[in-house]
Design brief:
This is LPXTG-motif cell wall anchor domain-containing protein. By secondary structure, the chain is of the alpha+beta class. Helix content is 28%, strand content 19%. The protein has a domain of 136 residues: Ferric Hydroxamate Uptake Protein, Chain A, domain 1, CATH 2.170.130.30. The N terminus and C terminus are likely disordered.
């Protein structure tokens, strides 16, 4: 009887131990935490309804535009190269400004987002930072990207005071090309050709101005 009771007790303890086991090791980061800890850039693009068009690590892009392209965001541009559509949201750029726009921010773990002072073509994302975009409707006039659930060292990074975290699904968008980019290769080749042609013209003019050399004498 004692052996039976001991066996039952051992079995119950084993089940309790399994139930109490943590689902995540204490030193495990989630995907965004790992990306930022490695000095890479995280891209977040959400619609006015909070739908993520992109929520993924994009490495170390040289510009904000490239970060969007690396995150699979298809861009359409308006006047002044202002991004007016991302991945068909809205489907096409409005003929005239209707009050809605894509707002551009930078963020970091546990910190509030700051509105970017530079456009995405001129900005250079910093490693360990978040490139964040949200769509502001004409009615709302403004927007703020959601605070992401960032886990580093097995602990959730506390969001700024007065905010809550949003656990959005991570995307795996394939990179796309930037439309209307400057064709630097063609420009470089063109400049080289112009320089060569200019040099040939200068040489020909110098030869003509020198004239034929005189030979013999009186």
């Amino acid at each position: 009887m004692r052996k039976v009771l001991a066996l039952i007790t051992f079995t119950l303890m084993a089940f309790v131990g399994l139930g109490a086991a943590p689902s995540q090791a204490d030193d495990v980061d989630n995907e965004i935490g790992t990306c930022l800890a490695q000095g890479q850039v995280w891209l977040l693009v959400v619609t006015e309804e909070g739908e993520p068009l992109a929520n993924q690590c994009v490495g170390n892009p040289p510009s904000g535009e490239q970060a969007l392209a690396d995150g699979g965001i298809r861009m359409q541009f308006g006047k002044g190269r202002m991004i007016c559509s991302m991945s068909d949201h809205p489907e096409t750029c409005p003929a005239t400004f209707d009050g809605s726009y894509w707002a551009y921010f930078q963020g970091a773990p546990g910190q509030e987002y700051t509105y970017s002072e530079l456009g995405p073509q001129a900005s250079k994302p910093e490693g360990g930072a978040i490139e964040a975009w949200c769509f502001a409707t004409a009615e709302a006039k403004e927007c703020t990207p959601p605070q992401l659930n960032i886990v580093q060292g097995g602990q959730q990074v506390a969001p700024p005071t007065g905010t809550t975290v949003t656990d959005l699904p991570v995307t795996q968008n394939a990179a796309v090309s930037i439309p209307g980019g400057t064709p630097w290769a063609l420009i470089t080749t063109g400049v080289a050709v112009v320089l060569v042609v200019t040099a040939l013209v200068v040489v020909q003019r110098r030869r003509r101005s020198a004239g034929p050399k005189a030979t013999g004498g009186r």
